[in-house]
């Protein structure tokens, strides 16, 4: 039965990726407006940000801060997107957070937009792919590919529903992490959780409550998660993710990390540490990378 679930997961992932729009579909959206600020990517990899002065069927004219007016032929444009002028700081465009819906491991309540997703890898072996089926529902799939070494392989699925509540500043979500191990007769286990996130995609704080699930039973004792993210520069974020286990001897796990986020990928590195019975070790190193995809 578990092997059948694994095949179903792989087929679902293939269907989701095949549904992604091609680059050509996202090249130039209809409805550009003279006077608005746009970010233009050209086929040779150049990027220009400026006010749209004029446009025709053959070319556009941008007024940029560094180069003045420039003319770009439409045939040379690979993508043209509207810029939120609130993200222009000291003449530079602070692009959107490429990995806004997750801290180190725990998700927040902000939802992936429809058609967007990301691949996340932690310490080489832990792999996750998450995709926005709609603006309010996303699904993730993951595995540790131990089958490469001829042994049992953990797999999991992470559905999540999320809704903005107050002016895009307060978000609520509910979801689960459910998985099993291929190659064993064990059942399915995981966590059901609910989250509230306050703040923007750049800077926010989240409180989550989760209940473990195993052998068709749900734990009576919750796990609390308190996490936060804050953007400190165009490419830099600081992150903390912390777990509290009421009634457990090892009742607190804390973490602190730095995220370097280019537009097309983000890199996390930090330390994770239980507060009790961990000796003189400062912390366990954390290293992860996330690569966004989709329109």
- Hey, roughly how much beta strand do the residues contain? over 45%
Count up the helices.
Answer: 1
| H-E order | HEEEEEEEEEEEEEEEEEEEE
Query: Ranges with pLDDT <50 over ≥5 residues?
Result: 1-30
- Say how many strands there are: 20
Q: Could you please describe the fold and organization of this structure?
A:
- The protein is mainly β and 295 residues long.
- The protein has two domains: 31-93, SH3 type barrels; 97-294, Beta Barrel (Porin).
- Helix content is 6%, strand content 54%.
- The protein has one helix and 20 strands.
- A twelve-stranded antiparallel beta barrel has the order 8-9-10-11-12-13-14-16-17-18-19-20. It has a five-stranded antiparallel sheet with strand order 4-3-2-1-5, with no helix packed on it.
- The longest helix is centred in the first third of the chain and has 17 residues, at 2-18.
Jot down its keywords:
single chain, 295 residues, mainly beta, SH3 type barrels, Porin, 2 domains, twelve-stranded antiparallel barrel, five-stranded antiparallel sheet, 1 helix, 6% helix, disordered N terminus
Topology:
Blueprint lengths: L1 H17 L18 E6 L4 E9 L3 E6 L3 E6 L3 E6 L5 E2 L2 E2 L22 E7 L3 E7 L4 E7 L9 E14 L3 E13 L6 E11 L4 E11 L2 E2 L4 E9 L4 E9 L7 E11 L2 E10 L9 E11 L1
Antiparallel strand pairs: 1-2, 1-5, 2-3, 3-4, 6-7, 8-9, 8-20, 9-10, 10-11, 11-12, 12-13, 13-14, 14-15, 14-16, 16-17, 17-18, 18-19, 19-20
């Amino acid at each position: 039965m578990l092997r059948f679930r694994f095949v179903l997961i792989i087929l679902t992932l293939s269907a989701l990726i095949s549904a992604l729009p091609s680059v050509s579909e996202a090249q130039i959206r209809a409805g550009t407006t003279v006077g608005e600020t746009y970010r233009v990517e050209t086929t040779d990899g150049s990027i220009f940000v400026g006010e749209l002065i004029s446009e025709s069927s053959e070319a556009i004219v941008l007024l940029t801060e560094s180069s003045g007016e420039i003319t770009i032929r439409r045939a040379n444009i690979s993508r043209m997107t509207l810029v939120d002028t609130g993200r222009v700081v000291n003449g530079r465009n602070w692009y959107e957070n490429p990995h806004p819906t997750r801290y180190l491991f725990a998700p927040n309540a902000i939802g992936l937009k429809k058609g967007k997703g990301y691949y996340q890898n932690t310490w080489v072996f832990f792999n996750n792919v998450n995709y926005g089926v709609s603006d309010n529902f996303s699904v993730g799939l993951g595995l540790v590919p131990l089958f490469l070494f001829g042994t049992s392989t953990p797999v999991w699925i992470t559905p999540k529903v999320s809704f903005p509540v107050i002016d895009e500043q307060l978000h609520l979500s509910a979801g689960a992490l459910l998985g099993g191990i291929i190659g064993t007769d064990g059942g399915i286990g995981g966590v059901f959780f609910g989250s509230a996130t306050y703040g923007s995609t750049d800077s926010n704080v989240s409180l989550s409550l989760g209940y473990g699930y195993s052998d068709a039973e749900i734990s009576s004792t919750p796990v609390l998660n308190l996490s936060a993210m804050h953007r400190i520069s165009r490419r830099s974020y600081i992150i903390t993710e912390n777990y509290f286990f009421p009634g457990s001897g090892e009742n607190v796990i804390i973490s602190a990390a730095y995220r370097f986020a280019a537009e097309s990928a983000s890199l996390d590195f930090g330390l994770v540490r239980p507060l009790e019975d961990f000796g003189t070790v400062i912390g366990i190193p954390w290293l992860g990378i996330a690569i966004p995809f989709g329109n």
